[in-house]
Every structure is written in C-alpha cells, then in structure tokens.
Design goal:
Blueprint lengths: L1 E7 L2 E11 L2 E6 L2 E6 L38 E4 L4 E6 L6 E2 L4 E7 L2 E6 L4 E6 L6 E2 L4 E6 L1
C-alpha cells in the first residue's frame, strides 16, 4: 500500500503498510510482519472516481457509423467541429477526395485547424467561402460518389 522510511536515534527503519481495517494495521517493518492496534478507528479517505459519458463529436453522421466508413450512395455532409472562421478552402467542386485529405483550414480560438475528409468521394457542394464565420455543426462541404 504505502512505504515509509524513518530514522530514529540514528537507526533506519523501512515500513510498508499492507492493510488498514478499523483500528488494526498490518505492516512490515524491516522485513518482519506486524499487526498493530491503534486507539481509534482509522478512516481512509477515498478519492472519487470521475466517470464521464462517451462523447460523440458533432461531425459524425450518426453514432453507429465509423468516421472512416465509405459513403453508402448518399451524400455526406462535413460539419464544422467548432465555431470559427474559414481561412482557406483547399478543394473545388468536382475534386476527388480520399479519407484523411485536408479540405479546409478553420481558425478557431486563434489556432488553425485542418478539416479532413471522413469519407472518400467527390466534392458535390461547398457551402462556405473564405472568410465566412461558422458555428459548431454548420455544414461546410457535401461529399458524394
């Protein structure tokens, strides 16, 4: 559990606390096991465990579809992951894009963020222009087959 080192009257002691139950402590002192009783019960403070729900980014079409899945005949909307300003558009309508290809540059919180393609296909529509301000979840591009 916990290890301590003490020096008493020039003698070194290594103490390892094995367990604490009520007012009884099981420990090992310089390799020898001891059970020690204390005059009151020792309450251990427990650190709370932080549990967070699984977050699904707003850019996903649905929670069940993997982000790198190929389009299933329908058009796929590429959405803004956070609010910001469009700095650059790196594709044109009719361009073929592959998974992971950078298509846009979005400035958010004074940082440049590359918006990559989640699917392979052809750019069907570009819904933003350079300099446009977008909100989280706004459709930036549409990719189809």
């Amino acid at each position: 559990m916990k290890n301590y080192k003490f020096k008493i009257n020039g003698n070194n002691y290594a103490v390892e606390i094995q367990s604490v139950e009520g007012n009884e402590i099981k420990l090992e002192l310089n390799g020898s096991a001891y059970t020690v009783e204390v005059d009151r019960e020792i309450k251990q403070s427990k650190t709370p465990k932080l549990v967070r729900p699984v977050a699904v980014p707003s850019t996903d079409n649905s929670a069940q579809t993997a982000k790198t899945a190929a389009p299933t005949g329908a058009n796929t909307a590429i959405k803004s992951p956070l609010p910001g300003t469009i700095l650059d558009i790196l594709v044109n309508v009719g361009d073929k894009v592959s998974i992971g290809q950078k298509m846009l540059v979005l400035e958010a919180m004074k940082m440049e963020n590359g918006i990559d393609s989640d699917v392979a296909g052809v750019v069907k529509e570009i819904k933003v222009r350079k300099g446009d301000s977008v909100l989280e979840g706004d459709v930036l591009l549409v990719i189809g087959e």
